[in-house]
Structures are given as C-alpha cells and as structure tokens.
Amino acid sequence: HITPEKFYVEACDDGADDVLAIDRVSTEVTLTVKKDVPPSAVTRPIFGILGTIRLVAGTYLIVITKKKKIGEIFSHAIWKATDFDILSYKKTMLHLTDIQLQDNKVFLSMLNHVLSVDGFYFSTTYDLTHTLQRLANTSPEFQEMSLLER
C-alpha cells in the first residue's frame, strides 16, 4: 500500500496481521497492524522487497513485482524474481537541478539494466544464503531460527 507519507507492506499469509511501515520522509521502518493502513492508500501486489538504494534524488525502494517458480529444494519453492519496480521515497523532484535530474535518470537506467539481468532468486521458506553443507553443520538452535533472525 502506498500513501504520500508511507509505504505499507502487508503479508498475504493467513492470520498475518503485522504490516511493515516504511516512512517516506524519515526512512524509519516499523511494524504496525492492518487497521493502521489508510483506506486511501494505493494498493498493488508485490512478491517481496529487494532492498533500498540511495541515488541523487533520494532513497528508492526496490520491490519484486513478478516471479516465476523455478524449482524446489526439499519441498521448498524456489522463485526467480523476473520484474521489479523502483519506488521513490520522494514525492517530487523539484528540489533537483537539471544536471541532478539527468544524473538520477542515468543511475535509474543503470539500475534497471542490472535488474534485467537473470540471477535474482529467493525462497520464503528455505535459506538460500547458506550452502546445504553449511546448513547440515549448524546447530539445532540455528536451524530453528526464522530466516529473518539468521
């Protein structure tokens, strides 16, 4: 969900009530609940957040807008991110000079080129950041941790 003040990222899992709120001015990230999302917010589906990047015009949020299932590891779905959107935290570019606007446009073009190259994979249930060998040699406590905690 997008408002002039915040980005709200809502999980689609059954029973999930938490919503990630990202302040577009302070860039502060907090957890809130669904009822805090204003009804006026523009809503669109995404499949994940790739991250943030700071360019000349300010901070941008990079989200995954399309995905393709490419396989499974131990019954865990592995997805390939196939399309992205780059969302500006700033509501306007009036604070930039013509040269800054041009530089920002070039950097966005370069970023779009990098994102168009194959190779962005993710799983919401399996740890792709560690090899199977390393995972086999970790403690039971580590294996019980959520992917976020790892």
TrEMBL record:
Q: Keyword check for Transmembrane helix, yes or no.
A: yes
InterPro entries xref list: SAC_dom
Look up the EC number in the record and give it.
3.1.3.64
Transmembrane residue ranges: 46-64
- Keywords on record: Membrane, Transmembrane, Transmembrane helix
Which Gene Ontology cellular component terms are annotated?
Answer: endoplasmic reticulum
Keyword Glycoprotein: yes or no?
no
One of this protein's GO BP terms? phosphatidylinositol dephosphorylation
Which GO MF terms does the UniProt record name? phosphatidylinositol-3-phosphate phosphatase activity; phosphatidylinositol-4-phosphate phosphatase activity
Superkingdom of source:
Eukaryota
According to the entry, every stretch annotated as the SAC domain falls at 47-140
This one is known as Phosphatidylinositol-3-phosphatase SAC1
* Reactions it catalyzes: a 1,2-diacyl-sn-glycero-3-phospho-(1D-myo-inositol 4-phosphate) + H2O = a 1,2-diacyl-sn-glycero-3-phospho-(1D-myo-inositol) + phosphate; a 1,2-diacyl-sn-glycero-3-phospho-(1D-myo-inositol-3-phosphate) + H2O = a 1,2-diacyl-sn-glycero-3-phospho-(1D-myo-inositol) + phosphate
Organism of derivation = Rhipidura dahli
